[in-house]
Design goal:
The complex is a heterodimer of chains A (about 600) and B (about 375). Chain A is an all-alpha fold. In chain A, about 70% of the residues lie in helices and about 0% in strands. In chain A, α4 crosses α8. The chains are: A mainly alpha (about 600), B alpha/beta (about 375).
């Protein structure tokens, strides 16, 4: 807190002194290097104005009236807000507890299976909550894998069962499961890019490991640390599916309450009140963040990765222990889905308790059969193709909008700083409310397509996905862009390099990792379809999550098995996508 | 500094809100005279040229066979597009929100628990389908025919047959049986605030016990180890012991048609369903689903044809295996499995739609305070 005050103080002093002149001049030169920052920001701002702010303000203006402003409503809103805040804080802390050491693991060490393990940690991010719930259930439930192994190994009878869903633990575990990848990617990338001479110098001066971390690395890395923290927190803060499905009816976050009030009771005024509270909280967090991180530059160096094989015993123990921990935490719930998709549980009628497990490929074969001849049958290949198509469009669109915006925000003028906080809003805004805003905003006749309205056309899906992906993309790119050393740029320019060449030789090698991370986020956001997109009306091109939800909406072992098979397909597609993105050696990107 | 931050943003928001066209005042209700229309002979196509486009808004559970849809499209020269819009409640609320510029021509999937809200919001145009004469009076809940009944199902408790047989436990027959100690911790229900079968089961208990007796019943259920989850998915696949999720509870609130679905979509050929329904008096609640023509449609003729089609024998007999619901037309022939594996209640509980609409929010709130807090 005192550091915050100090920085502010210094800034204020700087404003009034001759130093500010100098500073302003510098920022003008760097901003005019390529394009004025207003032009760089314009596409992203326009996009968010049309596809985020417009529908949101319209639905809020439509819904809000004085009837919601009663003492009882505020009491209810406050108690929900308190729990929302409480679980988000706890979840964020736990996510960092696992995420920080994991980020160090991936940034500093090389080991066999590293890229696979890294990709695995990103998979939960896009899994539909229904599937995650099924995964944990297939693992921990009464007939799950874990009790089954216990049962085999210890002849315990009856097999012990765990009450997982319906507890606060389930919410917290699921949030950690979902969001650890954010810390690994954002903080881990910054750590990888960090100039190793900093740490070497500190060590030469006699600092031990702990001191290096507390006095050098963490202060220097506080921008990416806070960026990751803010994203994780906002994600937990606006959590919907996890709380609704895994937490159960005892727990209610703002977003769940908004859903109940608007979709079940059609109590739009109350829903609007809650949405505004959620929006104001999000805005407050982002403003706080922007204030803290202003003008904090991470010294980096574009050099080959410093990751190496663990040498000392302590390093070896750390690497093996964390590999084991991450594998256990991520692989088991994930692997239980493909296992279940290949396993038949035969409870012979009247012979309960003797569940026979048998391998089967039926669920996959059945995916290709339209048994009931339904119009809504979804061929798996087509669902995968649709999902990938939307994801590719989302990646392209969010990078095209996010890259210029992030570079404009590196050295922001006053207007840009204001926009900076605004850019994060989609992440914390209520997806339910936004979905309703889309319904009343984009339901007009469209002249250009065959579709009755934008809301009924497939275009709306990547657009809605981009609204959610864009904040991730910008927050991932911005710290990396800020870390590009000005000295190197100046040196290159002095040596006669054109601005483009400077960008190619200096900026890009440092940026490429962050661009890949950003692309991965956009890709998974789109594949997992969370946020407003899942609440829109469904057009003609069903995706994998839609197919999974369809199977799980009817009783029957075959439906359940096919849902598991489809989830396995979704996971494989994501895993492949992430590995491909990570392996893509972009020109000039150097070594990863 | 704070003001500097907020003012331009607020101004921007206001500007955007101002730019947005104001919602037009709600349309005057459709002219009554339009009820009486000459029903064209069903076989005559609407036009001879390009197919007439018709958009049908439905909930996510809607399904229809390719053959039935193709027959309708060909006979009438209509091209149907379906817009799936979430669960039943979400779909209706989206239709209400967009009524000034409707997303579709026809809305299917409003049930009796939500019917009064749909009618009060004035989203439907009246249409008396000539095929409606086949539907029994108990399903025709809107005398003005703005909403037309298509199918029904009973929300009942399903139980795990093997569990009760193995433990030599009698299956509960009435709601009161459920609070007996031998059934401690055996029932999972859905939250009526988030789930349509959950709400239906709450309504069954209200119909049976009345007010405030139903709350005493629920408090006793709670004391007897009741498990509540937020939606049918979780209840059935995570908690119910006879589903493939293999959960801990042998009783779940589901549908009277679920046992047949368990056989039809089973892993292996089954001679008997692993589940059955408790069909004692008032243990089930009858859900009726309606279709209506959305006010402001430009395809009124095609929309009427579609409503007629939903009441035709072809669609009525297509329904059971597509959506696991029952046709309102008693002449429609049910698949064998629906006779063989399902049991149907003789006395399902019901409540009038306007009574439900007037009290739903209060009931759910009281229930929440009694069961969850």
């Amino acid at each position: 807190m005192s550091r915050l005050a100090d920085t502010k103080d210094v800034n204020q002093k700087a404003e009034g002194s001759g130093f500010s002149l100098l500073k302003r001049q510098r920022s003008r030169t760097s901003a005019s290097r390529l394009l004025p920052s207003a032009f760089l920001l314009l596409p992203a701002v326009l996009f968010l104005a049309v596809f985020f702010l417009l529908p949101l303000t319209r639905i809020l203006a439509f819904s809000l009236d004085a009837s919601a402003l009663t003492a009882a409503n505020f009491r209810r809103a406050f108690s929900v807000l308190r729990f929302t805040f409480y679980q988000a804080t706890l979840s964020t802390l736990l996510t960092f507890l696992l995420g920080l050491p994991s980020a160090v693991l991936f940034a500093r060490f090389d080991f066999r299976g590293k890229s696979l393990l890294r990709a695995l940690t990103a998979i939960p991010f896009m899994l539909p909550t229904v599937v995650v719930a099924a995964g944990f259930n297939a693992l921990l439930g009464p007939r799950g894998l874990f009790p089954f192994i216990l049962h085999l190994s210890s002849f315990l009878f009856p097999p012990p069962s765990f009450q997982f869903s319906g507890t606060l633990t389930a919410i917290l575990v699921a949030h950690v499961f979902y969001n650890t990848t954010i810390v690994i990617r954002i903080f881990g990338n910054a750590l990888t890019n960090l100039d190793p001479r900093l740490e070497q110098a500190a060590r030469t001066l006699g600092a031990d490991g702990l001191r290096v971390w507390t006095r050098v690395l963490l202060p220097v890395l506080r921008v990416p640390l806070l960026a990751a923290g803010l994203l994780v927190f906002l994600f937990d803060f606006s959590s919907f599916g996890v709380v609704l499905l895994l937490g159960g009816p005892q727990f209610s976050t703002l977003e769940v309450e908004i859903y109940i009030q608007s979709m079940q009771f059609l109590n739009l005024p109350m829903a609007a009140l809650l949405s505004i509270i959620q929006l104001l909280c999000t805005l407050a967090f982002s403003i706080l963040y922007t204030r803290i991180v202003t003008r904090s530059i991470v010294p980096t160096a574009p050099r080959p990765s410093v990751a190496r094989r663990p040498k000392t015993l302590r390093e070896k123990i750390f690497v093996s222990a964390f590999c084991l921990l991450l594998s256990a935490f991520f692989i088991f719930p994930i692997i239980s889905l493909p296992l279940r998709s290949l396993t038949r549980l035969e409870a012979d009628l009247g012979q309960r308790g003797e569940v026979r497990y048998g391998f089967t490929g039926d669920y996959y074969r059945e995916l290709f059969v339209n048994r009931s001849g339904s119009v809504f049958y979804i061929p798996p290949i087509e669902a995968a193709r649709n999902s990938l198509g939307y994801a590719a469009a989302t990646v392209a669109l969010s990078l095209a909008l996010g890259l210029p915006a992030a570079s404009a925000l590196v050295r922001p003028n006053r207007a840009a700083k204001l926009l900076d906080s605004f850019l994060l809003l989609p992440l914390g805004a209520s997806a339910v409310t936004l979905g309703l805003g889309y319904i009343i905003t984009f339901n007009k006749q469209l002249p250009i397509t065959n579709y009755q309205s934008l809301i009924a056309s497939p275009l709306i899906i990547p657009l809605a996905h981009t609204v959610i992906a864009l904040p991730f993309v910008i927050r991932t790119l911005q710290p990396a862009l800020a870390s590009v050393p000005e000295r190197l740029r100046q040196a290159a320019a002095t040596l006669g390099a054109s601005p483009l060449r400077v960008w190619q030789a200096v900026d890009w090698p440092i940026l490429s990792r962050a661009v890949l991370a950003a692309a991965t986020f956009a890709f998974t956001v789109s594949l997992g379809e969370f946020g407003a997109a899942s609440l829109l009306a469904r057009p003609d091109f069903p995706t994998l999550p839609v197919a999974i939800a369809r199977f799980l909406s009817q009783p029957g072992g075959l439906n359940y098995g096919q849902a598991m098979a489809m989830s396995t397909l979704l996971m494989s597609v994501t895993l492949l996508g992430i590995l491909l993105i990570e392996k893509a050696r972009l020109p000039g990107a150097g070594e990863f | 500094m704070k003001h500097k931050l907020f003012l331009p943003l607020a101004a921007f928001c206001i500007l955007l809100a101002a730019c947005a066209p104001q919602a037009a005042p709600s349309q005057p209700s459709a002219v009554e005279a339009s009820i009486v229309t000459e029903a064209p002979t069903p076989s005559a196509p609407l036009t001879s040229g390009e197919p007439v486009p018709l958009t049908v808004m439905t909930h996510d559970s809607f399904s229809i066979s390719e053959a039935a849809l193709a027959a309708f499209e060909q006979a009438n020269n209509v091209k149907v597009t379906f817009v799936k819009s979430g669960d039943a409640g979400s779909t209706l609320n989206k239709a209400i929100l967009s009524k000034d510029a409707p997303l579709a021509d026809v809305l299917y999937g409003v049930d009796n628990a939500f019917l009064a809200r749909a009618l009060d919001a004035g989203i439907f145009e009246p249409y008396e389908s000539p095929a409606l004469v086949n539907a029994p009076a108990e399903f025709r809940l809107d005398p003005e025919n703005r909403a037309t009944p298509v199918d029904y199902d009973d929300v009942c408790i399903n139980y795990d047959r093997a569990f009760f047989a193995k433990n030599e436990l009698a299956v509960p027959q009435t709601l009161d049986d459920l609070i007996r100690p031998e059934y401690n911790g055996m029932l999972v229900v859905e939250n009526p605030a988030t789930s349509s079968p959950g709400l239906a089961f709450l309504l069954a208990t209200i119909a049976h016990f009345g007010e405030p007796g139903y709350l005493d019943f629920w408090r006793s259920l709670r004391a007897n180890g009741l498990v509540v989850v937020n939606d049918w998915n979780a209840a059935y696949y995570t908690n119910f012991s006879a589903s493939s999720g293999r959960g801990p509870q042998p009783m779940v609130v589901s549908y009277a048609t679920s046992p047949a679905a368990e056989v039809i979509y089973s892993d292996a050929a089954l001679e008997q369903s692993p589940t059955a329904s408790i069909v004692g008096p008032d243990t089930c609640f009858r859900q009726i689903e309606f279709v209506g023509i959305l006010a402001g449609t430009r395809q009124r003729a095609a929309a009427e044809r579609f409503v007629d089609f939903m009441l035709s024998l072809q669609f009525q007999e297509d329904l059971p295996l597509q959506m696991f619901v029952l046709p309102v037309d008693p002449m429609a022939i049910l698949p064998d499995s629906f006779h063989q594996f399902n049991e149907y209640p003789d006395q399902p509980a019901t409540l009038a739609p306007d009574v439900i609409a007037a009290n739903r929010e209060r009931w759910i709130q009281e229930w929440t305070d009694a069961v969850l807090r």
